[in-house]
Each structure stands twice: as structure tokens, then as C-alpha cells.
Amino acid sequence: MDKEKSISLVLRLGLAFSLLYAGISIFYNPTDWIGFVPQWVRELSGGGYLSLYGHACFDILLGLWLLSNKWTFYASILTALNLFSISLFNLSQLDIIFRDVSLIFMALALAILSKKNS
User: Fold this and answer.
1) Which residues are CB-contacts of 48 (< 8 A; sequence separation ≥ 6)?
2) Measured between alpha carbons, how far is 96 from 99 in angstroms, rounded to an integer?
3) Contacts (Cβ under 8 Å, ≥6 apart) of 45
4) Cβ within 8 Å of residue 67, ≥6 positions away
5) Contacts of 104 (CB under 8 A, 6+ apart)
6) CA-based nearest residue to 97, from 105, 109, 107, 89
7) Which of 7, 34, 67, 80 has the most CB atoms around it within 10 Å of its CB?
8) Per-residue pLDDT for 21 more than 80?
């Protein structure tokens, strides 16, 4: 396996783990995650749990997509945008979401790497 493929694999595994963990954890412990749903979304969606479960499904699908190594550029861009939106709407919780900022840069690095190889 060449160096770029190894780097891509490590980035995809790291991002996929984070997405899959969050998505699955939301289904097992939704009350631990509802605080990350912006208040206006909770008000629009009757408490926010429906949107939280929808986001969990989205995270799981993104994680699986990254693992598939198909259209990696698009999967990584969508992952970066997803994490950026989470960070943007939770700036007051920067002591928790600071990890998401690092993951955004991982997703962008993967996008750059995969675009170069396509």
C-alpha cells in the first residue's frame, strides 16, 4: 500500500469512527446529546428528538460512506460541512466541540488528498 492510500485510510477510519460513535450513541443516550440541538430547532421540531435522530442517521450514513472509499471527496466535504454546522451552532460549548474543529481539518485534508488522486 502506498503512502497516500495509507494516509487516506487512516483519515477515513478516524472520521468514520467519530461519526459512527456519535450516531450510534445518540440512539442509546439521546438525552446526552439533545443539548447540542439548537433551541430554535428544538422549538420547530417539538423537542428536538426527531431532528436529533435524523442527524444520527446522517452521521451513520456519512461514516459508512467514508469507510466505503467511494466518492471520498464528496463524503469528506459533506463531513466537513456537517461538523462545521455543529461547531457553528455550539460555539458557546467550545470546550466540548473543539474536537470537531480538528475533525473538520481532517475531513478537508481527506478531500484534498482524494481530489488529487481522482
Assistant:
1) 34, 37, 41, 42
2) 7
3) 51
4) 12, 13, 16
5) 80, 83, 84, 87
6) 89
7) 80
8) yes
CA dist 106 and 93 (Å) reads 21
30 three-state secondary structure: helix
Cell output for 28? 442509546
Based on the number of CB atoms within 10 Å of its own CB, is 29 exposed (0-12), middle (13-18) or buried (19 or more)?
exposed
* Reported pTM: 0.90
Decide: 63 and 15 in contact? Cβ < 8 Å.
yes
Q: How would you classify residue 2: left for phi > 0, otherwise alpha for psi between -120 and 50, otherwise beta?
A: beta
Q: Determine the pLDDT at residue 117.
A: 65
**How far, in Å, CA of 30 to CA of 7, rounded?**
33
Torsion sign over Cα 79, 85, 86, 91: positive
Instruction: Give the tens place of pLDDT for each residue, 29-64.
Output: 999 998 888 888 888 877 788 889 999 999 999 999
